[in-house]
Amino acid sequence: GENVEQHPSTLSVQEGDSAVIKCTYSDSASNYFPWYKQELGKRPQLIIDIRSNVGEKKDQRIAVTLNKTAKHFSLHITETQPEDSAVYFCAASKTSGTYKYIFGTGTRLKVLA
Amino acid sequence: NAGVTQTPKFQVLKTGQSMTLQCAQDMNHNSMYWYRQDPGMGLRLIYYSASEGTTDKGEVPNGYNVSRLNKREFSLRLESAAPSQTSVYFCASSEVAAVNEQYFGPGTRLTVT
């Protein structure tokens, strides 16, 4: 069945360094790839998303890249800050067939001051 | 706008008891979802409703039932609670099924003893 794998499960970086989280998906028909951030005890919230017709999207310190041939996409956070500490989830979905996201298992990011 | 609301916030049940988790959204969204979140497992879809009048199973539907009461409300019922259903439950909604941002409710922490 459809599957999204996410790595690493935990990531610690020094404040100011960059963080990269990677996801691979199995369904080649997937065409929408969102990233969600979940702070401790809070609800997940969308931070950035990308559709299959583009290869990269940036929003200030956050960027996402997509390689459809290899079926993987990555989240890049530059100049990390303590408030970036959270759990990050990737997901994949598609416009046809089933109407649901498949989420990765999450990455716990710790930014060390 | 309140966004997505859920009740209750916390619940403790004994094995075999039943309960209904309530979810409502005021964004006029067509699609609604129920997820459960367990440590290390990410967000797993229980049931979803792509549009008013339709419901479909997700990845982990066993032991649950849902009702899309109207466009605003989507409830999740546990008929006979089991300890394996101890989890945090999130409701979410989106404008169009799957390929848009999902807005999450604050979650319900359920413990089954």
Features of the shown structure:
heterodimer, A: 113 residues, mainly beta, 5-stranded antiparallel β-sheet, globular, B: 113 residues, 4-stranded antiparallel β-sheet, 0% helix
Overview of this protein structure:
- The complex is a heterodimer of chains A (113) and B (113).
- Chain A has no helices and 11 strands.
- Chain A has strands at 4-7, 10-14, 19-25, 32-38, 45-51, 56-59, 62-67, 72-77, 86-92, 102-103, 107-112.
- In chain A, the strands form 2 sheets. In chain A, strands 2, 4, 5, 9, 10 and 11 form a 6-stranded mixed sheet that branches.
- The mean pLDDT of chain A is 93.
- Chain B is mainly beta and 113 residues long.
- In chain B, strands 2, 4, 5, 6, 9, 10 and 11 form a 7-stranded mixed sheet that branches. In chain B, strands 1-3-8-7 form a 4-stranded antiparallel sheet, with no helix packed on it.
Short note summarizing the structure:
The complex is a heterodimer of chains A (113) and B (113). Chain A has 113 residues and is mainly β.
- For the report, how would you describe the main beta sheet of chain B? 7 strands, mixed
SSE arrangement of chain B, N to C: EEEEEEEEEEE
What is the tally of beta strands of chain A?
A: 11
Q: Strand fraction band of chain B?
A: over 45%
The number of helices of chain B is 0
Structural class of chain B: mainly beta
Helix-strand layout with pairing:
The complex is a heterodimer of chains A (113) and B (113).
Chain A: E1 4-7, E2 10-14, E3 19-25, E4 32-38, E5 45-51, E6 56-59, E7 62-67, E8 72-77, E9 86-92, E10 102-103, E11 107-112
Chain B: E1 4-7, E2 10-13, E3 19-25, E4 31-38, E5 42-49, E6 56-57, E7 64-68, E8 74-78, E9 87-94, E10 103-104, E11 108-112
Parallel strand pairs in B: 2-11
Antiparallel strand pairs in B: 1-3, 3-8, 4-5, 4-9, 5-6, 7-8, 9-10, 9-11
